């Protein structure tokens, strides 16, 4: 029986444990308690991260990781299924655009008793062909070797554009998500410190300049302290 693959949470814990062991404090009761609390907090925050659909999709569409770090097979399967659904939606939109274009270009057709039958057969054939091509595109992508960790995934997808055209349309939506809202929240806090009740008539353009000056001042102050 193959050993169970460790999730990223446990890998992070193992790394902390290894560093603690090397430092010589692993046997200390306080150190063990800290490790235990750290694992509890990490698990609480990241234990079910694989079931967060946008993050799971982003992980699969990242050429550096794909399905490698999934510990839950159901979460991985759900993410792959969701990607297929997104590809179908995108393909359907393309077909609707092409269909509207064909209707505008076509002249009036002669009456045919079997016209609806031919249309139905053609539609079913096109649908089956499209679904097969989508499955093939996703399967080929997943079977490709993973990229290097220091590579930019968006740059990799620029090279994949011709090979995986449908996936390419989806990937930028998920790989460009902001990982944290800390920076924006910090910006709002700084803006609130500038635009007080006594200065509530400050225009947006001036407020932006003040915030930029304030940020540059803080950065320069830190540089002076460091050097």
TrEMBL record:
Pfam families named among the record's database cross-references: Dimer_Tnp_hAT
Any one of the GO CC terms: nucleus
GO molecular function: protein dimerization activity
Matches recorded under InterPro entries: HATC_C_dom, Vacuolar_transposase_reg
HAT C-terminal dimerisation domain location: 137-215
GO biological process: regulation of transcription by RNA polymerase II
Recorded coiled-coil stretches: none
PANTHER family: DNA REPLICATION-RELATED ELEMENT FACTOR, ISOFORM A, INNER CENTROMERE PROTEIN A-LIKE ISOFORM X1-RELATED
Name of the protein in question: (apollo) hypothetical protein
Organism from which the protein derives: Parnassius apollo
Lineage: Eukaryota, Metazoa, Ecdysozoa, Arthropoda, Hexapoda
């Amino acid at each position: 029986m193959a050993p169970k693959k460790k999730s990223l949470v446990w890998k992070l814990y193992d790394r902390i444990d290894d560093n603690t062991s090397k430092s010589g404090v692993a046997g200390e009761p306080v150190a063990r308690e800290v490790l235990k609390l750290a694992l509890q907090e990490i698990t609480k925050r990241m234990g079910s991260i694989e079931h967060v659909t946008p993050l799971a999709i982003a992980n699969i569409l990242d050429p550096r990781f794909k399905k490698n770090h999934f510990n839950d097979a159901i979460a991985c399967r759900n993410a792959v299924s969701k990607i297929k659904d997104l590809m179908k939606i995108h393909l359907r939109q393309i077909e609707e655009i092409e269909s509207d274009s064909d209707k505008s270009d076509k002249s009036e057709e002669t009456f045919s008793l079997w016209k609806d039958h031919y249309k139905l057969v053609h539609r079913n054939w096109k649908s089956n062909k499209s679904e097969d091509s989508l499955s093939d595109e996703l399967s080929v992508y997943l079977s490709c070797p993973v990229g290097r960790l220091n590579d930019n995934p968006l740059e990799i997808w620029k090279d994949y554009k011709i090979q995986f055209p449908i996936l390419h349309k989806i990937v930028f939506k998920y790989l460009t998500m902001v990982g944290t809202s800390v920076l924006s929240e910090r910006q709002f806090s700084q803006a609130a410190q500038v635009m007080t009740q006594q200065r509530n008539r400050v225009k947006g353009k001036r407020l932006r300049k003040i915030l930029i000056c304030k940020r540059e001042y803080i950065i320069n102050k830190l540089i002076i302290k460091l050097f």
